[in-house]
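Now for today's protein.

===
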Amino acid sequence: MATASSKGPLAGRRVIEIAGKGPGPFCGMVLSDLGADVIRVDRLGTTYAPTEVVHRGRRSIAIDLKSERGAELVRRLASTADAVIEGFRPGVAERLGIGPAECMASNRRLVYGRVTGWGQYGPRAQQPGHDINYLAVSGALHAIGRAAGSPVPPANLLADYGAGGMLLAVGLCAAMLHAEVSGSGQVVDAAMLDGTALLTAAMQGRLDGGTWRDERGANLLDTGCPFYDVYECVDGRFVSIGVLEPKFLAGLVVALGLAEELAPLPTTRAELEDPRHWPRFRHAFARVFASRTRDHWCSVLDSVETCFAPVLSLREAREDLHARARGIFGHAAGPGHPCPAPRFSGTPLSPPQAVRGPGSDTSELLGELNLSVGEIEAMLCDKVIE
């Protein structure tokens, strides 16, 4: 059941999110942004800062998950829901009495989403880990970085949010569609290792095809190629270029005043991808970009038909003219909240709601479960809820 103000393609869907860290909250945020009524089950005593953006847009109930009555309360919530999200190590949800079998017993259409690092089975299933570890085993981390340098972790964007939270959201939406048609729910096993490996599909294909070298900084899209890289400017800031087509390379070279020095230019994609051409372009680009400020190059290249963009800091990104035109950042929920994405023509999304504290909606949600005053008072007295 969606809240009265909810909009978006998932309006009318209810999701129970067992609060956690990383991919689970990100998935909950995405589903809430898309209109689902996401109810966050928080642990007693938990606190969130208003700036913890990934917890936005949900109602919250605080429950002692280690008590039998707390587990029963979660199961009752699950009986009203389309989906559940949990991010425990394999077996923990079952020990708490809120695993798939328990939650689906009274709701055969329920989709039960589980996100872990290594998956529900396999030699590493019980091993602790974080984003960087799943990147490492998937092969992705080895591929990120410069030639002769160490692998460079891309913050925790890939495994936690892209491969974990985002793919869990996709899996839940797919399984909810199937449940609507078949009447049967299922378990969605979203492993960050699996998802990260999926994100390397193009690299793996090129590797098998002989067009990708299994080393860092040696390929077209990993800083090995001078046409797809970042360059430092005289003020210590950076610009990015991604000129993978000869026509865009020609426009860039002319704008940089390098047409005569770098002639002849590659005229086909095959010539552009030939590593024998790369050294002379890299040296010339590095020298010229380092001669002026980043903002100077923005003024020169913004009107040129080439693939160029300044490298902005997180704070600068909020003030970018294009970002402001699209309203990407800054809503009532907070100045740093990115807007929901993607955008829908027929079911437009509501602006994100502020982060609500754990237990903020306990009374309201217990009322929706039709619990008696006596039951609620007993749980409060025994500290099952707060």
About this structure: The CA atoms of residues 374 and 380 lie 10 Å apart.
